Amino acid sequence: MPTLLSIESSTSHASIALMTEDGVIYEGGCVSDRHHNALIFAPLEEAIEALGDRRIDEVVIGTGPGSYSGTRVGIATGQGVALVHECPAIGVSSLLAAGLERGVAIGDARRGSGWTAVLASGQLPDPQILPISELESALEDKAPVFTFEDPERFVFSKEVAVDKLVPTAKRLAQAWRSLSEAQREALRAVPPQPAYLKPPHITEAKKGHPLLRGRSKG
């Protein structure tokens, strides 16, 4: 069984796990809202020490949805390790690291939008964008509803309970191993990148902006 390094940093609780044929032999992490780039290297060093004489065969990285900056740190870190060990770096949805076989994930996509994604055993989640006002009506009946964010930001009826879960590198590694070979091959073929739930908001420059003015003639 390949030796697998897993990195999950799409929330403030970043984690790293190392999995071999003996199971998970290392799991560690850090907590930070803004400094994953500084704190994630301590557990990474511990994971490399636990590696011993083995070489890493695959690096699996959580791609969100979640913190864009945190996810970028995880991807850059994983790609660096993969470069050293001459192995693939693979992006996997952080939703698979929730540890649920079935459920509905929700999140705030900003600017009046939300997103929802259905988790089902054996399937890769596909987040869908919709107006935040329509989020509750889009939830599947009887499926556990969870978020990686603060549940209080979602105002639903009393019948809808939203649990806060934290994705972990250990569960991400386990989810990766549980995917079919066809699913893993499809993910290996795509470079890791943060999950983009909607196009970036770009403000167009006004006509009078200095960058749009021609040089004055004189």
Topology:
Elements: E1 4-8, E2 13-20, E3 23-31, H1 36-39, H2 41-51, E4 58-62, H3 68-85, E5 89-92, E6 103-110, E7 113-119, E8 128-131, E9 145-147, E10 162-164, H4 169-178, H5 181-188
Parallel strand pairs: 1-4, 4-5, 6-9, 9-10
Antiparallel strand pairs: 1-2, 2-3, 6-7, 7-8
Task: Explain the overall architecture.
Residues 208-218 have a biased composition (Basic residues). Pfam families: TsaD. Residues 32-97 form the Gcp-like domain. One of its GO terms (biological process) is tRNA threonylcarbamoyladenosine modification. The chain is of the alpha/beta class. The chain folds into two domains: 4-96 and 166-188, ATPase, nucleotide binding domain (Nucleotidyltransferase, domain 5), CATH 3.30.420.40; 101-164. Helix content is 23%, strand content 26%. It has five helices and ten strands. The longest helix is centred in the middle third of the chain and has 18 residues, at 68-85. The chain is globular, with a radius of gyration of 20 Å. The N and C termini lie far apart (74 Å). The relative contact order is 0.17.
Assign a percent range to the helix content: 10-25%
What coarse outline follows from CA principal-axis ratios?
Answer: globular
Q: Let me know the number of strands.
A: 10
Largest sheet: 5 strands, mixed
DSSP strand (E) fraction? 25-35%
Tell me the CATH superfamily of the largest domain.
ATPase, nucleotide binding domain
How far apart the termini lie comes to: 74 Å
The top level CATH class name of the largest domain: Alpha Beta
Question: Could you please say which CATH topology of the largest domain applies here?
Answer: Nucleotidyltransferase, domain 5
Regions with little confidence, pLDDT below 50 for 5+ residues: 208-218
Number of helices: 5
* CATH architecture classification name of the largest domain: 2-Layer Sandwich
Gyration radius over CA: 20 Å
State the domain count.
2
The helix-and-strand class reads alpha/beta
Average residue-wise pLDDT: 88
